[in-house]
Amino acid sequence: MSHANTDVETLNSFLRGELSAVETYRQAIGHVSTDRLRDPLQDCLRDHEQRVAAIRERITKLGGQPSEGSGVWGAFAKIVQAGADVLGEQSAIQALEQGEDHGLADYQRDMDKTHGEARRFVRMELLPAQKRTHDRMSKLKKTLH
């Protein structure tokens, strides 16, 4: 498999994770009752939406076809979020933070599967952005205790 194919495959994996995050944040925002929670969730949603756009653009530049859906992770995220919806806002925030943990681990684990410019893109753009949303959710979770 060529580097471009490997890069497209890895970036599509990241894209599916980001699409899952977007779906989950949209669902969670619909279930929170205060701006104190809604505002940081909307900030995280925007960050994930920007990553979706950037990853799609990068995949297209590499000659690949961006994934359309979130796949298995989207289904998993919906199940987790549905359970959190029943249990309340604190559980929803905890589920979102767990999703951010998972996303961060994915970037850290799979970054080295990319090459050249794609690796730079992951290391310099995607990973720092994921760390920011992860930190935001960790702080928000701590304020709820």
Automatic annotation (TrEMBL):
<dbReference type="Pfam" id="PF09537">
    <property type="entry name" value="DUF2383"/>
</dbReference>
<feature type="domain" description="DUF2383">
    <location>
        <begin position="8"/>
        <end position="109"/>
    </location>
</feature>
<dbReference type="InterPro" id="IPR019052">
    <property type="entry name" value="DUF2383"/>
</dbReference>
<dbReference type="InterPro" id="IPR009078">
    <property type="entry name" value="Ferritin-like_SF"/>
</dbReference>
<dbReference type="InterPro" id="IPR012347">
    <property type="entry name" value="Ferritin-like"/>
</dbReference>
<protein>
    <recommendedName>
        <fullName>DUF2383 domain-containing protein</fullName>
    </recommendedName>
</protein>
